[in-house]
Design a protein that fits this description.
Blueprint (H helix, E strand, L loop, with lengths): L5 E5 L6 H10 L6 E5 L5 H4 L4 H18 L3 E7 L3 H4 L10 H21 L7 E6 L5 E3 L2
Parallel strand pairs: 1-2, 1-3, 3-4
Antiparallel strand pairs: 4-5
This protein binds zinc ion.
Zinc ion (ZN) binds next to helix 4.
Length: about 140
């Protein structure tokens, strides 16, 4: 069994990739993680726009867990995310503080759903990336 240090779930948005890579390098994750890159990261867990989107995300997640038994899941949300804005789950144009609070609420829901409905028992940590290149813990 090839064991991964972590499963990373992040948005596709090009604006956050440099910040995310820098963080993964400085935190010693490079070469040690599976990566699901999907618009809005876990937004389809919280409020799926489409059942197929949800099932695809869960499928990718379970494949990583089954094949590589990561020690933890790290989820990266970000400021001004179009994935969350597509149905106004978190609209664009909020202040950074308000945007952060809304992502925090979604992160709490996502973690609850993953623990209770999908019985994912490894730690799930959520981070927020702003558009200035900062990463902070969400929950
Ligand atoms: Zn995004």
């Amino acid at each position: 069994m090839h064991k991964a240090k972590a499963l990373i779930i992040s948005c596709i948005d090009f604006r956050i990739q440099r910040t995310l890579m820098r963080w993964l390098e400085s935190s010693n994750y490079v070469g040690k993680y599976d990566h699901i890159s999907i618009a809005g990261s876990l937004r389809d867990i919280v409020k799926p726009e489409n059942e197929i989107y949800l099932q695809n995300l869960i499928r990718q997640l379970k494949i990583s867990l089954d094949l590589h038994s990561p020690h933890e899941i790290l989820v990266f949300d970000h400021q001004d995310c179009g994935g969350y804005a597509s149905d106004n789950l978190i609209p664009n144009g909020l202040s950074k503080q308000e945007d952060f609070i809304r992502h925090k609420e979604c992160a709490q829901k996502a973690r609850y759903i993953l623990f209770n409905e999908y019985e994912i028992k490894i730690p799930i940590n959520f981070y927020y990336i702003d558009l200035l290149g900062n990463i902070e813990s969400l929950i």
